[in-house]
Amino acid sequence: MRFSSAAALLAAAASLHGVNAATADDWKSRNIYQLLTDRFAPPSDTAPARTNPVPETCDPVAQTWCGGTWLSIIDKLDYLQGMGVDAIWISPVHQNIDVHTPYNYAYHGYWVNDVTKLNPRFGSEQDLQTLISELHKRDMYIMVDIAINSIPTLNQNDALSSESLAADNSMWTDPAYFHKQCWIDYSNQTSCEICWFGDANLPLMDVNTEHPYVISTLNTWIKDFVTKYNIDGLRLDAGKHIPPEFWSGFTQSAGVFTIGEVYDGSWNFTASYQNGGHMDSVLGFPMNGAISKAFSIKPKNSNMTDLGVAVGQQLSSYNNPRVIGNFLENHDMTRFRNVTADPILAYNAMVAQFLFEGIPVTYYGQEQDLANGHDDPYNRAALWPTNYENGTTYQRIARLNLIRKQLITTGLQFNGKSYMDDNSTAIGVTPTDIAFRKGPIVYTLNNRGSPSETEAFGILATGWPSQTALVDLLSCHQFITGSGGSLSISYAQDGYGGLPYIFATASDAKTLGICGKPTPVGVLAPNSTSAADISSPMSVGLMGAAALLTASLF
Ligand SMILES: *[C@@H]1O[C@H](CO)[C@@H](O)[C@H](O)[C@H]1NC(C)=O
Ligand SMILES: *[C@@H]1O[C@H](CO)[C@@H](O)[C@H](O)[C@H]1NC(C)=O
Ligand SMILES: *[C@@H]1O[C@H](CO)[C@@H](O)[C@H](O)[C@H]1NC(C)=O
Ligand SMILES: *[C@@H]1O[C@H](CO)[C@@H](O)[C@H](O)[C@H]1NC(C)=O
Ligand SMILES: *[C@@H]1O[C@H](CO)[C@@H](O)[C@H](O)[C@H]1NC(C)=O
Ligand SMILES: *[C@@H]1O[C@H](CO)[C@@H](O)[C@H](O)[C@H]1NC(C)=O
Ligand SMILES: *[C@@H]1O[C@H](CO)[C@@H](O)[C@H](O)[C@H]1NC(C)=O
């Protein structure tokens, strides 16, 4: 008896101190859906808008609130789970300046002026708690965007005077809690850390995160916030604009998985935040650049070798590549589909997003092919005009999530290596095609796009013996390896052009529960919603000319 009550007490104490909090290891098998609370789901009877009036149509250019709330997110959780989403990252939840500015209104939630209060535009404490408990009931994680780097002010000319600071309704009332004014020089990291975002119209005063009072206040606050709301993870806004040393203490106090926005194209620079122990992970901006380059039409300036090099960089730069956020677009960037209109190229990019080492991060609207040009505010349209359709891209994401999840949960191995533990290794590359082995799968990507081509892509050695029956987990088409385990992929099928493929042995496909009999739901023909025919082998891999493989294996 004494033992069990001591254990119960320990367990209670442990949960109070966040020991059950989700770690990087808990997150690595998840996928994340990034949403802006104001734009993801419309007000409803059970989730009334907090803003009156709500515009009849949500024009992103107007930069005002369109009515989404924490409660309205709940209305669309079935939609997210239908796509296999098991974690959401929501835009900042804390109090913003709530006045008209030269850049209109803080509908996005990033103009936080006091993290100790919630943003009443999105709901109450109870509402946020209701959302989070609803997520947890569904075994979904919640990640909250944390914006602590700067405080907006409308008092351009004497921003740091005591009077201005009092008027800003900010939690920081002493000028010593801010760095002195200078505008950021992005080529200078010190300047990135201490100078100010914004401009003379709307300066964002840079919080002095070296000040002991600021440090202790924020560390205490984040610990309490995470515990109070049962938060599973934090996305750290403006990661590279706060000294890494600050993040070390802050993320330790938070005690949950953290992923930072280190908006930078350098592998080793972004990696230094993870490798230095300052945060668990970063969003993979270098990989985002490599994928965009590989699959964009204009300019089609890449060959697949570069993409293979990028995969190697991801593996060698980061101490823990398996938790790097892999994304195609976000709230600051032009929509991927504006750059890559061809649905087949986008499909290939999505396979990279979901299968490369890392955590796939889908920005709301990607699944509905939102393609608004330019960045902020065009990339922040309301989702509801899409009617949350179960369209081709939505189903492709569902399929990719299913494949990835099944590979992880079954732990299937090839040569002793599972999908999660193995590294994507290029086993064939040409200027337009690349094939990777990763545990029990071989997957191929190409930048041929639509429509069909008569050329084929040959892989000399997949690692499987000759005459092995394979299934493409995307289309459920069957293949058979040729001599030496070779494979030849034709891009002449059905008028679809350069489709990606994810091969597993027919017996592994059965274990995965994908493409077995009976035909599972959600099996997609390349660009339609009808079930694919799996009865006839599509291609028998007889490696004809070695010339098909124009670049050497690496
Ligand atoms: C970088 O920025 C800091 C802060 O503004 C400044 O003090 C320093 O001189 C700059 N360094 C260079 C090389 O420009
Ligand atoms: C990253 O690599 C470049 C070139 O190799 C080097 O100049 C730079 O100092 C490195 N940065 C970090 C943060 O290690
Ligand atoms: C492809 O890119 C690699 C690496 O940048 C380069 O060495 C190679 O010459 C390129 N090949 C072709 C055919 O463009
Ligand atoms: C990209 O955005 C621009 C500007 O809004 C628009 O004119 C163009 O049609 C868009 N392209 C695609 C492919 O949607
Ligand atoms: C994957 O790559 C990393 C970094 O190069 C290496 O440390 C690790 O051992 C590799 N894992 C496997 C299973 O090959
Ligand atoms: C979407 O449509 C596909 C094909 O009809 C179906 O299998 C799948 O269950 C649908 N998904 C949802 C969430 O309704
Ligand atoms: C698939 O897409 C291609 C190119 O967009 C089109 O020509 C073809 O008709 C589509 N096939 C089906 C079955 O929708």
From TrEMBL:
Cofactor dependence: Ca(2+)
EC number: 3.2.1.1
Enzymatic reactions: Endohydrolysis of (1->4)-alpha-D-glucosidic linkages in polysaccharides containing three or more (1->4)-alpha-linked D-glucose units
Superkingdom of origin organism: Eukaryota
Ligand binding (Ca(2+) 1): 149, 193, 206, 241
Annotated Ca(2+) 2 binding sites: 237, 261
Keywords: Calcium, Carbohydrate metabolism, Disulfide bond, Glycoprotein, Glycosidase, Hydrolase, Metal-binding, Signal
Protein name: alpha-amylase
